[in-house]
Amino acid sequence: MHMFFRTLLHVLFLSRRKPDLAHDDVARTNFITLPTDLDINRHMNNGVYFSIMDVARFDMLVRNGVWRTMREKEWYPVVASETITFRKSLQLWQRFTIESRITGYDDKAVYLEQRYVRPAADGTPEIYAQGFIRARFLRKAGGIVPVSELIEVFGAPATGGLPEWIERWGADVALPATRAEAPSVWPTEVEQRA
Which of 98, 94, 96, 99 is nearest to 35 (CA)? Predict the structure, then answer.
């Protein structure tokens, strides 16, 4: 429930008071590690990282004007795939920034990179964790908003092409379409030995 209030705080109050962003700008959203973010090891729980990244993406969407347009067109974003790599832990009451940027797109999805950053001893930003998100846009009336339509409305981000590994990752982790069969069948011990 606290993530809901964190999102509302950012989207309804803080994001609207920050400078506007272009679609390919890096959005910087500031946070602090709260007691409700911690796990039994007393550092930020790995699952919380994804939830806070959601809040930072909403901040970016409000500031670059995409959120307003999506609401007008009755579109909404969904995460299709996400991955994260951890480098350093975030401790209670530590301040950190999430840097969010559109990485590119393919024919089905938009890709974003998000970094958890804190100042190093010399003051330069240091990456604590780095995540990549593959997102799709859906219509409230049903159906997918094609990337070609997103580009028509918002323009193409000036990020260049997607790195090959991200395209491969997006294809490798994709599940079958929602209307296709997707049985949960685990390999047997005999199949595993083969």
Answer: 94
In tens, the pLDDT along 167-179 reads: 899 999 999 988 8
Task: Give the pTM.
Answer: 0.87
Contact between 116 and 87 under an 8 Å Cβ cutoff? The reply is no
Asked if 102 and 110 count as a contact pair (C-beta separation under 8 A), the reply is yes
Q: How far apart are CA 157 and CA 22, in angstroms?
A: 9
Beta strands 125-139 and 75-86 are antiparallel
> In 32-188, which residue ranges form alpha helices assigned H by DSSP?
46-63, 66-73, 147-154, 164-173
Phi then psi for residue 184, to 5 deg, are -90, 95
Asked if 135 and 83 touch (Cβ cutoff 8 Å), the reply is no
CA nearest 102: which of 73, 77, 138, 75? 77
